[in-house]
């Protein structure tokens, strides 16, 4: 069987990462969370007071950033490292979610991240989730999935995830963030969130995680 690239895009909090990790784990593929890369950049910019409308300052900051992942294939568990430090917990916090779409829209940031993502997927055998993976990072990906779900369902799932990390965020606040991010991600100039023509659209509102995984695995097997 040949190794393929599986691109999973979609709106915020539709279950992309959970599905992608499990699919990668079951196929023995690597998993790349492209959203975590933009979140790590956002954390770095926040910590270092980078002025985002100064392209020179932005480019200098990007050069100082090294992002890596530790994907535990057996446990389907991924951790993000920023300059050697585990930032997995920090990048999921609300203050990062509130800034990330502004940072990810900066052309210098996108150019750099997209180039890193292409390198990470060059050898195939990769599942990558994000917003522009099937449309821009890997337009030739053998399998493209686009996920969507009802807003309330998404907010409830995200609230449960945050609660597991001891963060209690009210549903309206989460919904506001999801709507704002979807809008900014869809309307930005560079690599906006779009549905690729050749993507399989999956509405996860009434699907369980095992059902989502099963569906993607079935499609993947057909493409191998
Ligand atoms: O996937 P996650 O919700 O963690 O992504 C956080 C943010 O990163 C998105 O809202 C979007 O602004 C940005 N992003 C992006 N392109 C990707 C993945 C994420 O612009 N491929």
UniProtKB/TrEMBL annotation:
Keywords: ATP-binding, Cytoplasm, Kinase, Nucleotide-binding, Transferase. Gene3D superfamilies: P-loop containing nucleotide triphosphate hydrolases. The keyword Zinc does not apply. InterPro entries: Cytidylate_kin, Cytidylate_kinase_dom, P-loop_NTPase. This is Cytidylate kinase. GO terms for molecular function: ATP binding; CMP kinase activity; dCMP kinase activity. HAMAP family: Cytidyl_kinase_type1 (MF_00238). It catalyses: CMP + ATP = CDP + ADP; dCMP + ATP = dCDP + ADP. Belongs to the cytidylate kinase family. Type 1 subfamily. The keyword Transferase applies. One of its GO terms (biological process) is pyrimidine nucleotide metabolic process. The lineage of its organism: Bacteria, Pseudomonadati, Bacteroidota, Cytophagia, Cytophagales. Residues 6-221 form the Cytidylate kinase domain. CDD domains: CMPK. GO terms for cellular component: cytoplasm. Its EC number is 2.7.4.25. It comes from Marivirga sericea. It comes from the Bacteria. It is found in: Cytoplasm. ATP binds at residues 10-18. It is an enzyme of class 2 (transferase).
């Amino acid at each position: 069987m040949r190794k393929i690239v599986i691109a999973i895009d979609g709106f915020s909090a539709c279950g992309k990462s959970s599905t992608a990790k499990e699919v990668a784990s079951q196929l023995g593929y690597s998993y790349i969370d492209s959203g975590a890369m933009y979140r790590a950049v956002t954390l770095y910019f926040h910590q270092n007071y980078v002025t985002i409308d100064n392209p020179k300052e932005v480019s200098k900051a990007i050069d100082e950033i090294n992002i890596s992942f530790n994907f535990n294939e057996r446990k389907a568990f991924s951790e993000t490292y920023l300059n050697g430090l585990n930032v997995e917990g920090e990048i999921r916090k609300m203050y990062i979610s509130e800034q990330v779409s502004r940072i990810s829209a900066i052309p210098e940031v996108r150019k750099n991240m997209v180039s890193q993502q292409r390198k990470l997927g060059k050898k195939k055998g990769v599942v990558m989730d994000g917003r522009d993976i099937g449309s821009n990072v890997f337009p030739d990906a053998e399998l493209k999935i686009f996920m969507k779900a009802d807003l309330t369902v998404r907010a409830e799932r995200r609230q449960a995830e945050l609660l597991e990390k001891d963060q209690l965020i009210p549903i309206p606040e989460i919904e506001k963030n999801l709507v704002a991010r979807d809008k900014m991600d869809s309307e930005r100039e560079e690599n906006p969130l779009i549905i690729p023509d050749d993507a399989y659209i999956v509405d996860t509102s009434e699907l369980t995680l095992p059902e989502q995984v099963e569906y993607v695995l079935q499609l993947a097997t057909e493409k191998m």
